[in-house]
Amino acid sequence: MDIFLDTANLEQIKKGARLGVVRGVTTNPTLVAKEGIGDYKSVVQEIASIIPGPISAEVVVEGVEAMLEQARDIATWAPNVVVKIPSTTDGLEVITALDKENIKVNMTLCFSLNQALLGALAGAAFVSPFVGRLDDIGHDGMELVSDMVKVYRQYQLETKVLAASIRHPLHCVLAARAGADIATVPFKVLMQMMQHPLTDVGQTRFLDDWHKVQNAQK
Ligand code: G3P
Asked: What is the model's pTM?
């Protein structure tokens, strides 16, 4: 399973790049607003220059024609930009048109297997099930991830399952077990994925023992 960062924070993305495990980035209007970013285009272009993999940028208009126009523009921002289109009826029409123009789409705000199936049939390169938001309303978000993996494989659909709205490290474990192609994670969760108390205890002990021997030899 690949790991993408779900953020518009450039420092976090640079750190993720240095760690060498971040294969892409997803942004959305809320994440951009959180960073107080005025110029979405230049931030996406900078992200796209830091991480060579897919960088998702979302359309922020409604209606087929308006979304199409904005999606075509976003697609020119950088060669690795992927356009996020919502899982709506209009969105489906837009995805079909963009697929014919070879513009890569990440269908976002996906909450059901039916939406996921239609998004794949329309030609979305990625479909993003929002795991945490389904959990929030008492559904099993990860069940949607595993259903999507099963159905896409069963019908040999090439669309990638991009597990999104990931809230904690256990979501990453479960997404990997379910066979998700990608999990897009907040920076905090990426840090938590590498944490283990026994690693910290073991490392402290190794260094203490080493220094004890060194001091005894003095
Ligand atoms: O990738 C989608 C993500 O940004 C939404 O996460 O935590 O707002 O549901 P959340």
From this structure: 0.95
